[in-house]
């Protein structure tokens, strides 16, 4: 408060001083200040400045408004300057463009003027030249006539001989050193020159400077004519028969090389059956296994069954059905290793139905009380019901009764159905033991046992139950554990007798030790059928891929062979000639090699295979003839010197190694012509558990997508053309 009072007092004092000064000025004339007054005045001003002076709110607002107005004015001034500069720049630019256009216009005008002047000069020159030529043309005949006249006078009076000029054509400018054919006079009378003798050389000798093919043709013609002259009639007839025999042999060879689908059943060879099994990825173990089914017509099944198969639209047998049905019809024990959904139900059901239709139908109560002819065990109720549904498709038409013995349904109802009699019982292990222990069912005459999904049953803890069920069956009808269990004739003879052997069929997706133990206990000399994934290589084969050029192949091949590989080795090429050339090259380098391709005769093929199998030869150079149906044991390495044309052929090629549970290596040389296979090749290598995909293959652009697919570019990879 004191400060405010001082400020107000100061203001009043200033105002009073100002009023006094005004009155003094009005009353008196201005006089110059004395030194003391000036000094006092300065002192008073300094004292006033030294004292604090505070502004009111209104004064502060006024000061702020003034400052804001000054800032706005400065900003406007700057904007005006920028606008003026921009306008000035635009005017200068327009002026420069106009000047440039004027210069270009002047230059074009000058160029047009120069062009016009040049044309005028040329036109004037042409006119002058035409005038000169006209003058020359007029003078030239006169000169020539004068010269001719002088020459005629000289010839007439001086007796000059006129030389005749020899005309020469364009093609006669070069001197010809050879004699002309018309100048040769010796050919008319000398027999030696008339019939020239052809130079005959031995081995690979040829005359230099003459076409090699023409020389070989002439030599073969010469020797052919010579032999023809020296042969007797009997020898000529013998040669004719020999050529006919060779021709027939080649035709037979060509006929035998047909695909198995083009042959009848009688024409099928062992090689055809091997190719057939490879096509459907069927692997078999066990002795004397019958050939698989090619189709339902050739199966030899009863007509009633074939009609049901056709009615249910089973057009083609599945791989497991093709091999398991012929084995089942021989009354042999089977172990089938195949995934769920591969048609296993029909594979064991069709032989079972053929078996039951050959047996008498139980009518009397004594026969019914002896139990069913067959039992089918499944790990779950759902699977058992599914098998029952599939069985009913056939059983209804054939008048065969089936009963499902599974949990979740009244045991008494199932016992009542069993008491009425049935031929087939489909059951889960737990409920079947319950029914057996409670005497609802006996297995006195059960001669057919099917274990479906055996590995799953073992995993679910049914191993003891399965053994208990099998122990309920009579041991009198077990097969002998001898070669008789594999003999087709003895098995079929027993099949037609009254006391039949028990047949046990086991299907599983895997073969753990527990399943093998069960099979050894209850199966007699079983035939094992493995169904692999169609079109996929063996998992035990290590696949190695090299991206090389055509020139680097041979060097890379030698590098692979020098790494120390155990024989036998198979090298695949695409052409017959390439196989022969490569084999000769390997022979020169010290390797023991033989060839196998379509151009070889049957004896040569058999010799090549026998040489490789017996160890006489270490390397087989072959085309795709050896890619399928050839079984050579212990092949350690397969080399695709020329990459296969399709990925299926590649799979069959590398399938020559890694057989019979052994490991193998497959090396492939891929050139730029094989880039369309890179995607599928990369997928096979990635799927193989023992193979490693090289970065070169994994990152290759052609291995990123299937051939023929349209790949949409990323925005960053797009090129925009303006």
UniProtKB/TrEMBL annotation:
The phosphorylated form (by SRPK2) is a component of the U4/U6-U5 tri-snRNP complex composed of the U4, U6 and U5 snRNAs and at least PRPF3, PRPF4, PRPF6, PRPF8, PRPF31, SNRNP200, TXNL4A, WDR57, SNRNP40, DDX23, CD2BP2, PPIH, SNU13, EFTUD2, SART1 and USP39. Identified in the spliceosome C complex. Interacts with ERBB4. Interacts with ERCC6. One of its GO terms (molecular function) is ATP binding. It catalyses: ATP + H2O = ADP + phosphate + H(+). Belongs to the DEAD box helicase family. DDX23/PRP28 subfamily. Involved in pre-mRNA splicing and its phosphorylated form (by SRPK2) is required for spliceosomal B complex formation. Independently of its spliceosome formation function, required for the suppression of incorrect R-loops formed during transcription; R-loops are composed of a DNA:RNA hybrid and the associated non-template single-stranded DNA. Residues 325-529 form the Helicase ATP-binding domain. Residues 540-701 form the Helicase C-terminal domain. It holds the Pfam family DDX23. One of its GO terms (biological process) is mRNA splicing, via spliceosome. A motif (Q motif) lies at residues 294-322. One of its GO terms (cellular component) is nucleus. It comes from Leptotrombidium deliense. Residues 224-253 form a coiled coil. Residues 1-30, 98-149 are annotated as: Disordered. Its EC number is 3.6.4.13. Residues 294-322 form the DEAD-box RNA helicase Q domain. It comes from the Eukaryota. It is found in: Nucleus. InterPro entries: DEAD/DEAH_box_helicase_dom, Helicase_ATP-bd, Helicase_C-like, P-loop_NTPase, PRP28/DDX23-like_helical, RNA-helicase_DEAD-box_CS, RNA_helicase_DEAD_Q_motif. This is Probable ATP-dependent RNA helicase DDX23. Residues 98-132 have a biased composition (Basic and acidic residues). Keywords: ATP-binding, Coiled coil, Helicase, Hydrolase, mRNA processing, mRNA splicing, Nucleotide-binding, Nucleus.
């Amino acid at each position: 408060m004191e400060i405010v009072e001082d400020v107000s007092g100061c203001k009043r004092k200033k105002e009073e001083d100002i009023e006094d000064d005004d009155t003094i000025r009005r009353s008196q004339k201005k006089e110059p200040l004395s030194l003391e007054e000036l000094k006092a005045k300065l002192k008073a001003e300094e004292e006033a400045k030294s004292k604090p002076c505070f502004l009111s709110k209104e004064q502060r607002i006024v000061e702020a408004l003034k400052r804001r107005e000054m800032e706005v004015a400065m900003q406007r001034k700057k904007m005006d300057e920028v606008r003026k500069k921009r306008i000035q720049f635009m005017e200068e630019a327009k002026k420069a463009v106009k000047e440039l256009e004027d210069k270009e216009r002047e230059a074009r005008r000058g160029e047009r003027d120069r062009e016009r002047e040049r044309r005028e000069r040329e036109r004037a020159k042409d006119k002058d030249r035409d005038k000169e030529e006209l003058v020359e043309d007029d003078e030239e005949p006169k000169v020539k006539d004068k010269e001719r006249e002088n020459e005629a006078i000289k010839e007439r009076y001086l007796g000059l001989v006129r030389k005749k000029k020899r005309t020469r054509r364009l093609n006669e400018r070069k001197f010809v050193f050879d004699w002309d054919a018309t100048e040769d006079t010796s050919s008319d009378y000398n027999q030696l020159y008339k019939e020239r003798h052809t130079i005959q050389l031995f081995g690979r000798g040829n005359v230099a400077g003459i076409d090699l093919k023409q020389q070989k043709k002439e030599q073969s013609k010469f020797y052919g004519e010579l032999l023809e002259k020296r042969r007797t009639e009997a020898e000529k007839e013998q040669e004719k028969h020999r050529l006919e025999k060779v021709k027939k042999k080649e035709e037979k060879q060509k006929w035998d090389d047909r695909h198995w689908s083009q042959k009848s059943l009688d024409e099928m060879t062992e090689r055809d059956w091997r190719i057939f099994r490879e096509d459907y990825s069927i692997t078999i173990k066990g002795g004397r296994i019958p050939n698989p089914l090619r189709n339902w017509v050739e199966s030899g099944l009863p007509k009633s069954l074939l009609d049901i198969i056709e009615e249910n639209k089973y057009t083609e047998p599945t791989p497991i059905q093709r091999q398991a049905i012929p084995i089942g019809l021989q009354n042999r024990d089977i172990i089938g290793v195949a995934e769920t959904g591969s048609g296993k139900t029909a594979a064991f059901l069709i032989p079972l139905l053929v078996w039951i239709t050959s047996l008498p139908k139980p009518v009397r109560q004594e026969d019914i009380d002896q139990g069913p002819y067959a039992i089918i065990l499944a790990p779950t109720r759902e699977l058992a019901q599914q098998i029952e549904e599939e069985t009913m498709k056939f059983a209804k038409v054939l008048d065969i009764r089936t009963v499902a013995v599974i949990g979740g349904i009244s045991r008494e109802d199932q016992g009542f159905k069993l008491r009425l009699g049935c031929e087939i019982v489909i059951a889960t292990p737990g409920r079947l033991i319950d029914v057996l222990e409670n005497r609802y069912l006996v297995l006195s005459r059960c001669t057919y046992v099917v274990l479906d999904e055996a590995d799953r049953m073992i995993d679910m803890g049914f191993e003891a139950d399965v053994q208990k069920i099998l122990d309920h069956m009579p041991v009198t009808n077990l097969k002998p554990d001898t070669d008789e269990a594999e003999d087709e004739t003895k098995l079929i003879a027993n099949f037609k007798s009254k006391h039949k052997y028990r047949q046990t069929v086991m299907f599983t997706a895997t073969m753990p030790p527990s399943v093998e133990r069960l099979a050894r206990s209850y199966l007699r000399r079983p035939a094992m059928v493995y169904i692999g994934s169609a079109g996929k290589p063996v998992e035990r084969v290590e696949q190695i891929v090299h991206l090389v050029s055509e020139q680097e192949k041979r060097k890379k091949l030698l590098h692979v062979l020098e790494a120390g590989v155990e024989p036998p080795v198979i090298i695949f090429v695409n052409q017959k000639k390439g196989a022969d050339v490569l084999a000769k090259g390997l022979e020169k380098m010290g390797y023991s090699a033989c060839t196998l391709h379509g151009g070889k005769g049957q004896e040569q093929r058999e010799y090549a295979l026998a040489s490789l199998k017996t160890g006489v030869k270490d390397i087989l150079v072959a085309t795709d003839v050896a890619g399928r149906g050839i079984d050579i044991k212990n092949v350690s390495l397969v080399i695709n010197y020329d990459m296969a044309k399709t990925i299926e052929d590649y799979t069959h090629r590398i399938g020559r190694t890694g057989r019979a549970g052994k490991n193998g290596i497959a090396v492939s040389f891929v050139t730029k012509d094989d880039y369309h296979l890179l995607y599928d090749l990369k997928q096979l290598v990635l799927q193989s558990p023992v193979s490693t995909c090289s970065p070169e293959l994994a990152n290759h652009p052609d291995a990123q997508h299937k051939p023929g697919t349209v790949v949409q570019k990323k925005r960053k990879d797009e090129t925009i053309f303006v």
